[in-house]
Amino acid sequence: MTAARRRWWSWTHTWSSLICTIFALLLCLTGLPLIFHDELGPNPALETGTDRGVRASVDAMIAQALAERPGEIVPYLFYDRNKPIVKIPIAASVTSSPDTFFYKVFDVRTGTALGIDQPNQGFMYVMLRLHADLFAGLKGTLFLGAMGLLLAVSIGSGLALYGPFARRRRFGDVRQRQGRRVRWLDLHNVLGIITLAWFGIVTLTGVINSLAAPIELMWQSGQLAEMAAQSRDAAAPTDRRAPVDLVLAKVRAAAPGMTVTTLAFPGTPFSTPSHYAAFLSGDTPLTSRILQPAIIDAASGEVVAVRQMPWYAVALFVSQPLHFGDYGGLPLKIIWAVLDVVTIIILLSGLYLWFTKRRSGRRAAAGSAPLAAEPSR
Hints:
Strand order of the largest sheet: 4-3-2-1-5-6-7-8
Keywords: Membrane, Transmembrane, Transmembrane helix
Low-confidence stretches: 364-377
Number of helices: 11
Largest sheet: 8 strands, antiparallel
Transmembrane segments: 12-36, 142-166, 187-208, 334-355
Structural class: alpha+beta
Pfam family, one: PepSY_TM
Strand content: 5-15%
Radius of gyration: 25 Å
Protein name: PepSY domain-containing protein
Helix content: 40-55%
């Protein structure tokens, strides 16, 4: 690498890192507890000895939930992937923000209401909002996505800088006798190259996750509208509703081997005024994360269409478990957490190296030629 090219890569790495590092630190710190969201989140006590195949009436659960909050409605049903429970949100309208939902949780086998803290309150909720959108909604999400792109540039430029450096040194070598800054530079480089693949995957999947809202809009205006158009009464909203138990039974019969994870009621952003929308998943670590939509006529309960999700939606579903490492059980989560802590050290050491170089000027570059470049990840 020529001196001019090294300076260009160094400038790119320095400024892309400086702009996004504070936000990357925030995402790493908030992402650490979110890796263990299943373990740290609400954990309702379930009865033992009840057959998982038994299903109580969902309509009865909905009636019980609405009795506590008269005048409100149920916009969705959310089934847990790992536990026999269903979360029933209650809202003022079908278009209410999820942040305003009040949740009732039931054992799907017995219909028993379970005591649980509201998921839109508490420490984990604050961590999730900071991680997802900085409490700024879509603008915050897209801003963090832009920071993720800068972080990807920082990772790529750091790799370009590491190449010439690695050719002159043994892998993992940390020079102990050439001052604190040199030790931190070597440690920064070594940790950066060790976590390169993981850091790159988490960064890119985070960017994809930040595009969830645009992806949802594409799906709603494309596949959802096309599926709903197959119904003869697609343009005729009706107040007549088929029982939810019937809707769920029809969906399960139309998609054997699949599990209903979400049911969107008519009029919500994920359905139409005259249709329910069910989202189903498989039973493997991968297919359990890839949803398959079904559209159901609201009046009759008949399934109108069942489709595979388009590629851009599948990319979103696959990126979510990769981002948090929650597709391989607790051992993988522990590995993700360790790598997250290492990444925090890399980010902090990068800031330290930049500040010390600013303070001491060109004297900090004394030693070997690679030290003239900015620290690489």
